[in-house]
Specification:
The complex is a heterodimer. By secondary structure, chain A is of the alpha/beta class. Helices cover 40% and strands 24% of the residues of chain A. Chain A has one domain: 3-Layer(aba) Sandwich (Rossmann fold), CATH 3.40.50. Chain A is globular. By secondary structure, chain B is an all-alpha fold. Chain B has a single domain, classed as MetI-like (MetI-like fold), CATH 1.10.3720.10. Classes of the chains: A alpha/beta, B mainly alpha.
């Protein structure tokens, strides 16, 4: 059984079928790239994993634990909050909290999670806060933004904001970090710094799912590639298989078009 | 009647004006938020009750509402003696809460969905998302329109004289009719200008304070 197992995910929005039976598995430490044209369901799939959408049928499990099963009654808010922490999500449009400093953006969620509602003595609370603070600073160092710790998001470039968003998602140590087109909202000259950070994360064996339009990045970094078209997985394999020797006609024509307009 | 005596008498009326103004704000700011939650409720009947209520209050003159609160219970045969000033304040609180609620609603709805989703994927509860992520951004966005309403409230307090509450304008009118002096009526304008000028400065300060970030 694979680390992450996704079985028969269907999702409709009204009469539009967005996902039509998605199944795949991935192993720990793997980097999976999902490519495909707009409207193929890539983002919806990622949102289902992060509980931002509820699939109509199918099930998701991680490390043997069932996270979602459409056959079961819906989970409580509290359960969902616990389960979704297996995943982190980096959004296309960053979605940083504009009123907080970079450091606070990273430390806010861990503070709320580990301090609010827990009965901690003052000493314990200070210890936890210190730990979170140190961890947040270390994460900002990882994404190369130590110097911007006390800046506000509006003072940063898009690429820097996205790197903060990556640090923020890492702060809760998710099992799988998901990226939803992390460079699509960036100017071309800023995509490099974000992709570099993702590449560095790969060297630490982080499990990642990256929805992307950057074909060269997918080819160079991913261990496995999924090509989605019209809500189904059209092709699945290693980058060499999918990019070098695509089996499906749809994959071939998509890749041709993507390479024409890089 | 000397300038000082006029000033002293107008100052008395001004204190009543300040009372109406201050208590209305204290009451209407939180009540407005409750009305906002009601009118944004996912339960349709609750939502519609609040929407209709806001429509009635915003759709009728405040002057009429003041009269209704003061005389209404008696006309209905209820044995409810309500003093003039409290009647005015009740009408003001309800009226302003409805206006505030619409400003709050506009502010809350202007916050991008991505802010809620970012909070959600970070495991925050609904109330943590509202209080830790959204609320502050809402406050920043609504300071200018709220400032507008607050300045309007300063001048609306003069409606209280419709049920003979002696606020600033009424106290000037009394001087006019008793002493046959006309200039105190213009002098009253200076009180309003001074007070609304002070509020404008405070509101600008608040706006500046909140402007440490963009977005």
């Amino acid at each position: 059984m694979a680390f992450l197992e996704i079985n028969g995910i269907y999702k409709n929005f009204g009469k539009t079928e967005v996902l039509k039976g998605i199944s795949f598995g991935m192993e720990k430490g793997e980097v999976l790239a999902i490519i495909g044209s707009s409207g193929s369901g890539k983002t919806t799939l990622l949102r289902c994993l992060n509980f931002l959408e509820t699939p109509d049928s199918g099930n998701i499990s991680i490390n043997g634990e069932t996270l979602f099963d459409a056959a079961e009654p819906p989970a409580s808010d509290k359960d969902i909050r616990r389960k979704r922490l297996h995943f982190g999500l980096v959004f296309q449009s960053f979605n940083l909290f504009p009123q907080y400093t970079v450091l606070k953006n990273v430390s806010l969620a861990p503070e709320l999670l580990r301090i609010k509602g827990q009965k901690l003595s003052k000493a314990e609370k200070n210890r936890v806060l210190k730990e979170i603070d140190e961890n947040s600073r270390a994460l900002l160092n990882t994404v190369g933004l130590s110097e911007k710790m006390f800046s506000y998001p509006c003072e940063l470039s898009g690429g820097q904001q996205q790197r903060v968003a990556i640090a923020r998602a890492l702060a809760l140590s998710p099992d799988i970090l998901c990226f939803d087109e992390p460079t699509s909202a960036l100017d071309p000259e800023l995509t490099g710094e974000v992709l570099r950070v993702i590449r560095e994360l790969k060297t630490t064996d982080r499990t990642m799912i990256v929805v992307t339009h950057e074909m060269n990045f997918a080819r160079g970094v991913a261990d496995k590639v999924i090509f989605m078209a019209d809500g189904v997985i059209e092709e699945y394999g290693t980058p060499d298989e999918v990019f070098g020797n695509p089996k499906s006609e749809k994959t071939r024509s998509f890749l041709e078009k993507s390479l024409e307009n890089p | 009647m000397s300038f000082l005596e006029v000033t002293a008498q107008l100052a008395k009326g001004f204190i009543t004006t300040l009372q109406i103004f201050g208590i209305t704000l204290i009451g209407a700011l939180p009540l407005g938020l409750l009305i906002t939650f009601g009118s944004m409720s996912k339960i349709k009947p609750i939502k519609w009750i609040f929407k209709v209520f806001v429509w009635i209050i915003r759709g009728t003159p405040l002057m009429l509402q003041i009269i209704l609160v003061f005389y209404g219970p008696g006309l209905l045969g209820w044995d409810l003696k309500i003093d003039r000033l409290p009647a005015v304040i009740v009408a003001f609180i309800i009226n302003y809460a409805c206006y505030f609620s619409e400003i709050y609603r506009g502010g809350i709805e202007s916050i991008p969905k991505g802010q809620y989703e970012a909070g959600q994927v970070l495991g925050m509860t609904k109330s943590q998302i509202f209080f830790k992520v959204v609320l502050f951004q809402v406050i920043k966005r609504i300071v200018p329109p709220m400032g507008n309403e607050i300045i309007t409230l300063v001048k609306d307090t003069s409606l209280a004289r419709v049920i003979s509450v002696i606020e600033l304008v009424k106290s000037a009118q009394d001087i006019i009719s008793q002493k046959s002096l006309i200039w105190p009526l213009f002098y009253v304008g200076a009180f309003y200008l001074l007070f609304s000028g002070l509020l404008t400065i405070l509101l600008n300060l608040a706006e500046k304070k909140l402007n440490y970030y963009q977005g």
